[in-house]
Specification:
Elements: H1 2-57, E1 65-75, E2 78-91, E3 94-101
Antiparallel strand pairs: 1-2, 2-3
Length: about 100
Amino acid sequence: MHTTKQLKSLKNSFIFLETIVSLVVISIIVSIFFKLNYDNRANKKFQTLNELSNKLKKSNYQNMQISQNKLTIFENGIEKKVLVSKITSNQNNIKLTKYELIK
């Protein structure tokens, strides 16, 4: 009778250990999946931002909205009016605005 209790105790310990190991393995797999998914979304946003930045540097405003605005600037109490081009882009939830002085 004493050996039966020891075997049941040993079997329960093994089941407990097996459960703990299974939970650890599942948590590792889930965390890797979420990390890969997050990095992929961040990478796509970075690529879009980099592409927009390159277009702005090269003055390639394809697929962007361009409008002309008059801005009033106060410098040392003197009012100056300048004409600027407002270039806006809204791609993949990235909103970007650039102002260029029109000469």
